[in-house]
Design goal:
The chain is α/β, with parallel strands linked by helices. It has eight helices and twelve strands. Helix 2 runs parallel beside helix 3, helix 6 crosses helix 7 and helix 6 crosses helix 8. The chain starts with a strand and ends with a strand.
Length: 227
Amino acid sequence: MVVEDETSLATLLGNYLERDGFDVTVANDGLKAVEIARVVDPDIVILDLGLPGLDGIEVCRQLRTFSNAYVVMLTARSDEIDTLIGLSVGADDYMTKPFSPRELMARIQVMLRRPRNGAPNTIDTAQARTFGPLTIDPLGRDVWLAGEAVPLTRTEFDLLAVLSERPSMAFSRQQLIEAVWDSNWVGDPHLVDVHIGHLRRKLGSDADHTEFIRTVRGVGYRMGTGE
C-alpha cells in the first residue's frame, strides 16, 4: 500500500512494486489510507509524513491499532527524522526524499523475508523464555509482562527474540541488523536504537526502574533480567 499525496511519486512507486509482483493500492490522504488499510490488510505500507487529512504519524498510530504491516515512513526533510525517531509511532523504517526507488524495493524485499505476527496465542510454556515478570513466546510471537499482553510491532518482537535467545551475549548494532533486518539491508544502523527505545518504553523500563534490555557501552545491547 502506497500512501502519498504526490501523484507522480505514488505512480512511480506503484509501478516499481507492480513490476516486482506486488498488488498495489494507493491512497492520497491520511483518512482514506486508514479506511483502505482496514479493508485490504496490506503486508507493507509506504507512508508519507506530510499528508492531507491525517499526517503520517497519526496514520501510523491508527494502523498499529489493527494492523501488523511493515511501515516505511517517508519524509521530505532529513531533520524530521530526529522528531520521528523520538516518537513511538511504530514505523519500521524511515527514508528521506529524494530516495532511490531501487533502495526502497531492496529494503521491502528484506522485510518480507521475515514472518508476520500471527493472531494472539496462549503461551507455549515449553518454548517460553522468562525474565522476571517478562515472558516471551517465540513460536506464538507473544510477549507478556506481569500477565498482561504487550503489543509489539514485528520489528520490535524480532529484536526482543534475538536478544532473549542468547541473553548473556552483548550484540552490536551490526549483529542485530544482520539478525533482524538481513545482512543486505542498507540504512542507518542507529535505527536499531530507535526500536530499542520503543521496546524499553513498552516494557516499562527506564533509568530508574528495572531494565529488560541493557546497554553495553562500546558494544551495543544485551538482555537484562528485569532486576
